[in-house]
């Protein structure tokens, strides 16, 4: 039972850190363009890479 004195606050602290990380990601625009990454894989960028060499 003594371990619960440590585990419950630790779980609450880690949950709060996760929530803060999620809120930071939402405010910094991490989830703004969900379709862009899915569509970006369809485009062929080989021509651009050859020009840089």
From TrEMBL:
Designated name of the protein: Cbb3-type cytochrome oxidase maturation protein
InterPro entries for this protein: Cyt_oxidase_maturation_cbb3
UniProt KW RNA-binding keyword: no
Any single Pfam family the record assigns to this protein: FixS
Record field: transmembrane: 6-25
Assigned keywords, A-Z: Membrane, Transmembrane, Transmembrane helix
Keyword presence, Transmembrane: yes
């Amino acid at each position: 039972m003594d371990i619960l004195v440590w585990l419950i606050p630790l779980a609450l602290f880690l949950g709060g850190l996760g929530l803060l990380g999620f809120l930071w990601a939402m405010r910094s625009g991490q989830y703004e363009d969900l379709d862009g990454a899915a569509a970006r894989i369809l485009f062929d960028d080989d021509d651009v890479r050859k020009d840089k060499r």
